[in-house]
Amino acid sequence: MTFSEYETVLELRRYRLRPGRRDELIELFERELVEPQEAAGAHLFGLFRAGEDFVWLRGFRSMPDRKAALESFYSGPVWQEFRDAANATMLDSDDVHLLRPVRRGLAAPPPGSGVYVTVSPPAAPPPAAFAAFGTEPSENDFPRLPVHTDTPVSVWFSREPLTESSQRLEPTSRSLLR
């Protein structure tokens, strides 16, 4: 299995955190929550600081694989042990887009520094986007974790800002996407 097989279904998760708690969540997340999610069948592409917030990308091979991985992880002992500590750092964890690929590229971004994410109304990806996604039209089969269903979006990853709304992402030490 290749890294890019996990680009079939992607979650862009943006967490608004309590002031001063971002690095606490990242340390907990990287120490305790990455490996168990990957053992359950998810692939964590990127973990990022975004101002005082935490942004991360989780990929799956398919919607049924997503459901199985989420059921396994969120009903397992690791999440049960650390969920209160993780949730205590958050103001909002429901800014989540469930996406499908338009242009794969997270596994092999072009050389350079800087990672930007742009969320926009549906549109063709600009040439500078090394990976592009659109809203996954399937129903969220794990409703315990809400995802945006109000309006479809395009999501682009690039080495430079593509619009005024592009958000710079600062990779954490465990981020594969750099």
UniProtKB/TrEMBL annotation:
Alphabetical list of InterPro entries matching this protein: Dimeric_a/b-barrel, NIPSNAP
Organism domain of life: Bacteria
Ranges where the NIPSNAP domain occurs: 11-102
UniProt name for this protein: NIPSNAP protein
TM stretches of this protein: none
One Pfam match: NIPSNAP
Species this chain originates from: Amycolatopsis australiensis
